[in-house]
């Protein structure tokens, strides 16, 4: 099928873009990489009357370090640029590890980091990464700029805390804590397909080698990225033995996400099984990396 | 009257000026407005890869872009591969011919467009790297093994040409 007619705007500045958003509100849809939006328009599942194409705005594709050792990613940075960035690999290795799992090379040449976050697909990797790394989202409108924390950003299925007149302009990540490690795992039917279940984890060790802090987020199990809070609580203060990790992963499956969605691709039982197995694998790898980081004197 | 926008694109080195409706997909623009029907349209939602073209040298799905977005950009399609009409096939085309890298040929233009920049950036790929590179292109005929063989043979041919 073909997209329904729409009015097309290609602003050349953020100011112009948010002006259009203020004018059109709910009638307008932002076009970033288009790798999720255009398929739904081709099927006429989505029929926006106005498209605001951000691709003519220069300088929104930046990837820059912050003074405190963190990272700022402009809304229009393409997946391929992030995948190939040495800076991203250095500051947030979890993001680099995740990028090759996002769709296929042709999609990653076009798709954007900001677009994936703002789209809030429950099967997507990057919203879960944002939650696990506790990143922040910069929202810009004619009313000004504000920062939204990851925990407050994802509201519901394909729904974020962005107001109709706001656009996502930047995603920011703080520096990784000392003695920390992160990992992601996912299972899909074919490489590049949406995950049946996926998980991202970040763990931090104290000087004695016990778990000081942790964040773990699943995707493709509910209406958005799901933080496994009870699993994480069972890790804090504990030495990360195989038994402790297994118990935490089981808690993710039994307590945090006892009823993952079932569909034609995977039953509820299979998804619960994957939640436990992938959780254990991701936590094990993250703790190994954290221990390695600790041995290297707390550097990354 | 619906909105009409003037665009200028370069395709395989030639410049084209056309007036298009914003909702016109780049894939349909290439096939219908420019008459370059080598670019195939399969699923129209970014899964099959048949419509893959090069946008400023990088493979993209032409069904997941609007023609207006290509204004001012350089495109490359399967028609640009062979030199001097069909007299001199590109080494990748020769390799697909020799290795039976296609049967019905529907997916082939998209695969060739994916493989060209891949081999330029990875002149000596492993089987695993080839399979990852073509993971976004579906083929219902070959079972992929012949395509992998063709890509490896193409890599050899392209090295010889250097």
Describe this structure in words.
The complex is a heterodimer of chains A (300) and B (162). In chain A, helix 11 packs antiparallel against helix 12. Chain A is globular. With 300 residues, chain A is of the alpha+beta class. The relative contact order of chain A is 0.12. Chain A folds into three domains: 50 residues, Uridine Diphospho-n-acetylenolpyruvylglucosamine Reductase, domain 2 (2-Layer Sandwich); 111 residues, Uridine Diphospho-n-acetylenolpyruvylglucosamine Reductase, domain 3; 115 residues, Enolase-like, domain 1. Chain B folds into two domains: 76 residues, Roll (Ubiquitin-like (UB roll)); 71 residues, [2Fe-2S]-binding domain (DNA polymerase, domain 1, Orthogonal Bundle), CATH 1.10.150. In chain B, 33% of the residues lie in helices and 15% in strands. The chains are: A alpha+beta (300), B alpha+beta (162). At the A-B interface, helix 2 and helix 6 of A face strand 4 of B.
Short description:
Chain A is α+β, with helices and mostly antiparallel strands and 300 residues long. Chain A has helices spanning 14-24, 37-42, 79-83, 86-91, 93-98, 105-108, 113-119, 125-132, 150-153, 229-233, 242-256, 268-295; strands at 7-9, 28-31, 50-53, 63-65, 71-74, 136-141, 144-149, 154-156, 159-160, 167-173, 180-187, 197-205, 211-219, 226-227.
């Amino acid at each position: 099928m073909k997209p329904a007619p729409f009015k097309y705007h290609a602003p050349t500045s953020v100011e112009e873009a948010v002006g259009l958003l203020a004018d059109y509100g709910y009638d307008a849809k932002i076009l970033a990489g288009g790798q999720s939006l255009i398929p739904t328009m081709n099927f006429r599942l989505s029929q926006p009357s106005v498209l605001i194409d951000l691709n003519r705005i220069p300088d929104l594709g930046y990837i820059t370090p912050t003074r405190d050792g963190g990272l700022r990613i402009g809304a229009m940075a393409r997946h391929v640029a992030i995948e190939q960035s040495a800076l991203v690999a250095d500051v947030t290795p979890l993001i680099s590890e995740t990028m090759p799992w996002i769709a296929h090379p042709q999609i990653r040449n076009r798709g954007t980091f900001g677009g994936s976050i703002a789209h809030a697909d429950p099967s997507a990797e990057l919203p879960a990464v944002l939650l696990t790394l506790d990143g922040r989202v910069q929202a810009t409108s004619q009313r000004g700029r504000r920062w939204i924390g990851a925990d407050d950003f994802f509201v519901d299925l394909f729904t974020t805390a962005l107001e109709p007149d706001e656009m996502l302009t930047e995603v920011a990540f703080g520096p990784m804590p000392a003695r920390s490690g992160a990992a992601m795992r996912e299972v899909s039917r074919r490489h590049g397909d949406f995950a049946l279940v996926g998980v991202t984890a970040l763990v931090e060790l104290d000087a004695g080698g016990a778990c000081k802090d942790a964040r773990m987020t699943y995707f493709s199990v509910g209406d958005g990225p799901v933080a496994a809070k009870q699993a994480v609580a069972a890790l804090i203060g504990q030495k990360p033995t195989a038994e402790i990790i297994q118990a935490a992963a089981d808690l993710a499956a039994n307590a945090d996400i006892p009823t993952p969605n079932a569909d034609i691709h995977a039953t509820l039982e299979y998804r619960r099984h994957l939640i436990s197995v992938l959780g254990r694998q991701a936590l094990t790898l993250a703790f190994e990396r954290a221990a390695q980081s600790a041995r290297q004197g707390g550097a990354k | 009257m619906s909105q009409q926008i003037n665009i200028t694109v370069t395709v395989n080195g030639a410049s084209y000026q056309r007036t298009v409706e914003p909702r016109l997909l780049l894939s349909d623009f290439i096939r219908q407005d420019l008459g370059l029907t080598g670019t195939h349209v399969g699923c129209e939602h970014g899964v099959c890869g048949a419509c893959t073209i090069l946008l400023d040298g990088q493979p993209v799905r032409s069904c997941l872009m609007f023609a207006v977005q290509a204004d001012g950009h350089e495109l490359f399609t399967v028609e640009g591969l062979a030199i001097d009409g069909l007299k001199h096939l590109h080494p990748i085309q020769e390799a697909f011919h020799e290795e039976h890298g296609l049967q019905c040929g529907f997916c082939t233009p998209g695969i060739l467009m994916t493989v060209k920049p891949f081999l330029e950036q990875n002149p000596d790929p492993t089987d695993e790297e080839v399979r990852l590179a073509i993971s976004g292109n579906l083929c219902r005929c070959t079972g992929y093994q012949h395509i992998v063989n063709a890509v490896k043979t193409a890599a050899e041919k392209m090295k010889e040409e250097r």
